[in-house]
Structure formats: structure tokens, C-alpha cells
Amino acid sequence: MQASTNHGGQRERNDRRSSKLSNTEHWDRLSTAQRFAYYTLSKLGYQLLFVRRQGDLSLAITRLGVDVATIDNWGEVDFTPKISLRQ
Length: 87
Description:
Elements: E1 2-5, E2 11-14, H1 23-28, H2 32-43, E3 47-54, E4 57-64, E5 67-71, E6 77-78
Antiparallel strand pairs: 1-2, 3-4, 4-5, 5-6
């Protein structure tokens, strides 16, 4: 990821936000445990928004209406994650 500083001192990122991944690409980024957990959530109506990766770990972000849930690398679901999504 590249970052540069503009005149206001804020960082501008030239990263993955400039291109969107397809649902298949997000699915491919899930661990086996995350896939099983997401399958259960999808039956409840949750949609997979994206998968955030840091090294060997990934965090799947899902949403049902205004409710957000995350699935960690081991398939543990957090229905009250401390994250904010951009509008």
C-alpha cells in the first residue's frame, strides 16, 4: 500500500479502495472456518461486504440492514464489532 501526504497533512491512500473485488474474489479470501460461519449467516440474510486481510489473518465483514457482524479467521462471529463503515 502506498501513502502520500498532501498539503493539509492528511494521508491520501493509493490502495485497494480504487478497485472493487467481485463476490467470488471475496469468497476466495475466506478461510474454511469463515466460509462455514458465513454460510450460516447468509441463511439469516447477511451479505458479505468485504474481507480485510492482515498478514495470514482475515476478517470478513457482513451486513444485514444496518446490523454489522464480523467473522474472524477461526469462524468466530462478532455481532457487536467495534468498526465503522464508510458511507
